[in-house]
Amino acid sequence: MLRPKIPTMPTPTGLVSPPAVIEPTTVVQHHPAPAPAPAAHVPSRPTVQLTPGTVLALVGGGTAVVLVVGVVLVSMLLAVAVTGASVAVCALVVRSLITSQHRR
To answer: How far apart are CA 74 and CA 81, in angstroms?
Structure first.
């Protein structure tokens, strides 16, 4: 019942054609085409020129990114600290309730 059924190789049905005969072809050598004339030299891409305004914008953008990332990381750390403190306070309250139950 749980044994896999392996399919058997089906026998070919109908007419079977013989394999095609491959005839050899002649090899014709072509003379290589002359090399094309070299293309005109394309000038390279222009270099980036930093003006004082773009440098100031880059520094300001980098500072803003660092400040935003710092604020996010500090807020995540603060959230973890507040959660830990509240869990500790809850644990103390539960412990106090359990010990007061045993004294009665």
So the answer is: 10
Closest Cα to residue 55, out of 63, 47, 44?
63
> What is the mean pLDDT of each successive set of 10 residues along the chain, which is 104 residues long?
74 67 74 68 74 92 96 97 97 93 74
User: SS3 sequence, 34-54?
Assistant: CCCCCCCCCCCCCCCCCCHHH
- Distance CA(76)–CA(73), nearest Å, equals 5
Instruction: Give the CA distances from residue 92 to residues 22, 55, 103, in Å, rounded to whole numbers and listed in that order.
Output: 91, 55, 17
